[in-house]
Amino acid sequence: MTDLSALDRGTPPGAADPVKVLLHRHRELCERAVDPLEIAAGLEAHGITDRTAARFRHRDVFSLAEELYARVPRDSETRTPGPDGASGTDAPSPEGSARGTVPLLLLPVLPGLLCAASLIALSRTHGQTRLYAAAAGVLAVTLALRAAVRRGPLSVPADIAPRAATGSWTWWLVGYAVLGEGLLRTAVTGGPDGLPDGTTEGHWPLALAPVLALTLACLPATWTAHLFRTVARRKLATSRGLEDFAASVRPVLLGTVGLFLGALAAIVALCSPFLGTAPVSATTVTLGALLLVARLLTVHGFTHAPRVILMLTAVAQVLAVATVFAARLPGCALLGAPVETLVTAWGPAAVPVLTCGAGALVLLVHASRTLTRASAHLHAEQPR
Fold first, then answer.
1. What contacts 352, CB < 8 A, 6 or more positions away?
2. CA dihedral 257, 315, 112, 296 (to 10 degrees)
């Protein structure tokens, strides 16, 4: 059997028909593929490049995949490619199309609506009733968010879900956005003198604008993720090489992230008059960017980097607050000096902006290298 690594080094194939050898090695991939695009993505995932395809007398991986697809015997019930390059046995029924719009249009709206209703309830209640309203609101928003990300473009495939455990770190980051800045501000000045009371003026003030903006941004996040998946699939159908595909998808990825950030910034500005906050919030925008890029990577099967970056970001924010309190111990004043200097110069928002911004930038660079591979979109059209 011919060794592909030997072919890539330039060793002449030992068989008269090297494509037949490749077909034998990847027969399972070729038999289950519904179009040549899936074979091309699968070959790339196995390390076959355009340079390797040239050893098989093909100009690129896409051309090689077309020959492999044509050589595999198929029965009459094999699905045929649709007009946009996607595959299917039949055109989608009106009922199926209606069901498909539910996760795209209705579910992403629920978290923001429930969060807004919860904030209204908090503003009109007091004492123990406010505590009950807060608990009910947190539960309702949590369930709505889980429903929104388990269907549609933001959902994680079943085979990836067991290793895509980023929920706990995501909640840590959202929790810091609500509680962290107020705690850090009071800690630097010697507080806090009491527990949070659900208001923005207490001993431990809460920041409610970020959580409202982020839940409302679930809708543009879903739309932009769907846009990226759809355009990337179309680029895959029209590209004639792996490098060509990567070059065409990279601007789409950057444009998707930019479009979401613009929508999130608009949401922050629209919410500011009702919450009495600034119309621009770098904290919310950087956190939103971090969560979106992490989700895009996770949805496409790249789970390790998002999990590590979210964990490091959450730990960095917790440590920033912890050092301020640790500096109160005898002989430990130097521990809190860096954070206190940063807060004095730029305010408590500097900590989440720097940590989330750095994490988002790292993940975006990683995404520009991984989400521009054809193999990242191998199952882009599978139902969630």
1. 176, 177, 180, 181, 283, 286, 287, 317
2. 30
pLDDT at residue 356, as a whole number? 96
Question: How far apart, in whole angstroms, are the C-alpha atoms of residue 121 and residue 119?
Answer: 5
pTM assigned to the model: 0.78
**What distances in angstroms separate CA 105 from CA 102, 223, 265, 289, 346, one per listed residue?**
5, 8, 20, 21, 39
Grade residue 79 by pLDDT with cuts at 50, 70 and 90.
very low
Helix (H) or strand (E) holding 80: strand 80-81
Helix (H, G, I), strand (E, B) or coil at 81: strand
Mean of pLDDT values over 283-295: 95
pLDDT band at 163 (very low <50, low <70, confident <90, very high): low
Query: Which residue type occupies 358?
Result: A
Nearest in space to 211 (alpha carbons), one of 145, 152, 273, 165: 145
| Cα–Cα distance, 167 to 273 (Å, whole number) | 31
pLDDT value at position 113?
Answer: 93
Tokens for 356, please give them.
């989330």
Tokens (6 digits) for 12: 């002449």
Query: DSSP alpha helices (H): ranges in the chain?
Result: 4-8, 18-25, 27-32, 36-45, 50-55, 61-71, 94-101, 109-123, 127-149, 167-188, 209-216, 218-238, 242-275, 282-299, 304-326, 337-346, 350-370
Q: Could you tell me what percent of the chain has a pLDDT over 70?
A: 72
CA angle 284, 184, 352 (to 5 degrees): 30
- The residue count for the chain: 384
- Give yes or no for residue 195 having a pLDDT over 60: yes
Mean residue pLDDT across the chain: 79
| Parallel/antiparallel/unpaired status of strands 87-88 and 80-81 | antiparallel
Range of weakest confidence among 81-95, 188-202, 214-228: 81-95
Q: Give the mean pLDDT of 228-251.
A: 82
d(CA 360, CA 305): 11
